[in-house]
Write a structure and sequence with these properties.
The protein is mainly alpha-helical and 633 residues long. 73% of the residues lie in helices and 2% in strands. It has helices at residues 22-46, 53-67, 73-94, 98-105, 114-132, 136-141, 150-160, 165-188, 214-223, 225-250, 262-269, 271-297, 299-316, 331-347, 355-379, 386-403, 408-442, 446-474, 485-499, 504-519, 524-532, 535-553, 558-591, 595-598, 600-603, 610-629, and strands at residues 195-199, 207-211. A two-stranded antiparallel sheet has the order 1-2. A hairpin with a 7-residue loop joins strand 1 (195-199) and strand 2. The two termini are 32 Å apart. 56% of the residues are buried.
Amino acid sequence: MDNKNEFKPYIPADKIVPEFTVTSIVIGIVLAVVFGAANAYLGLLVGMTISASIPAAVISMGIIRVILRRDSILENNLVQTIGSAGESLAAGAIFTLPALFLWAEEGKIEFPSLVTIFLIALFGGLLGVCFMVPLRQALIVEEHGTLPFPEGTACAEVLLAGEEGGSKAGSVFTGLGIAALYKFVADGLKLFPSEIGYAFKSYAGSQIGIQVLPSLAGVGFICGPKIASYMLAGGTLSWFVLMPAIALFGGDATIYPGTDPISEMLAVDGPSALWSNYIKYIGAGAVAAGGMISLIKTFPLIVRTFKQAMASMSKKHAQKNALRTQQDLPMPFLLVIILAIVVLIWLIPTFPVNPVGSLIIVIFGFFFASVSSRMVGLIGSSNNPVSGMAIATLIIATLLLKVTGTDGTTGMVGAIAIGGVICIIAAIAGDTSQDLKTGFIVGATPKKQQIGEMLGVVVSAAAVGFVLYLLNEAWGYGTTELPAAQATMMKMLVEGIMNAELPWALIFIGVFIAIVAEILKVPVMPFAVGMYLPFSLSAGIMAGGIVRFIVEKIKGTDEEKKERADRGVLFTSGLIAGEGIMGIVLAILAVVKVDSVINLSARFNFTTPQFVSLIVFVLLLVYLFRKCMKKSK
């Protein structure tokens, strides 16, 4: 298996089966838009996204095998390739682009046009695919058996176990339906509150609470109890240590200009006012430091990866691709796309850079694409430090723009646009490498996968602007409904460098807390994100993590435990997608002002007790547990 000559894909290279078909393209495009929108909502809510490859593959098998009665593993593979592009592009976009909306709300700039968002997303997505293609031979083929590619290999296993497609797809669809209905009843009809909490009067500044939402339980289950507990620890530090300390020592003081006295804030808006005025800055400092720490820790690996990538590219093009399973998009075609994007970045006013600056963006992009592609091969997409790469790019881009005289709002917008492109490049390159690994195992045609990935990028880039506008119109970014943790932090970072107007003391508190966490060997990013987010979000995620902990602790063989976890992952993927889709639907209803019409608690003037919400959420968790423990027929 370690030797590439010994490896035989599931579909042999000399066998031609349906792959790039109208069916696979249409289903893939639909899933790219759906998972892209759902992941954008989830990422803005909880500060992290999930991989859509496995749920996309399972839904595809359910449609193609069960409904259409067709049997082609390569069609299913192409569907998940196109579908997962939407989720990755959304992940890259939401870390940076909402900063433009935040500035527009403050009256500093015009709202970004849909064309601007489309071009940033499109350039980043296409460059991510183009940069990954030359690395395929080195990372996927030559290092098969060395680089595990966790998600790519798991997705291949799901496709190879295709005969279970019907029951597995049923599990995803069940989760999707339950979460959509739950979200509509809780946040649409308002029959019970989706967030419950209690502020301690005798311990001013603190508040315990939980958001009883299916997506949070899903995220907690997929991430597992360890990551969930780190997030909860971060939330506990913010809401039970830092906020009470601010309330205790602050009193009637105003800690920095432009804010109300602390006692007044607490009297009017409760502890959440301390979160929005103080903790967000401390949390942003911790998230930024966490991103940089993860980048510094992986720097030796980054340098080694880049050297290997360059060496493999010079070797690879001496040979001609002959077999179907070795055909990549031709290098001249990729170079034309890259060159066209370099010229367009220089010419389009959204990117205030000269030709050299445009070239620097592409060089940075290739560097981070090669790093991202290898990182996901080693540690999986979930642990890929994309936001760390974006932070590093953002700091360098902002400094360069300021030094070259492009400052003020033009420089800030330019820095976010450049950071957005780099962030999307890293996210898409990582996703492409996972998809190509899946294709390598099942025997797909790389060239067709690469075209599929580009197709997914174009469609998702066109859709993501509408999703961002919709969510901003419905609830606004930086609010409790959509905290937009990374984007708010990126905005603060750019402003701080350009205008020197940040409360640096608060940010440095966050930075040093992150350093303490690193010294104590606590994974900094989940801890820092937990510090930034409302405690109630981390508590909801922890609930899902506890279910996963119980499921894996109950006696059974390793294989049985893995099967239980896999059943839970599919169901909770459905929960996340279902709530994300319903979140988008509710945003549409809020924008067209129908939300007040369906708000039954307001219309009939009743308030549901908080314990009802808790009972409903516990019932959902019990159902999730039973779903995991129920053996397949």
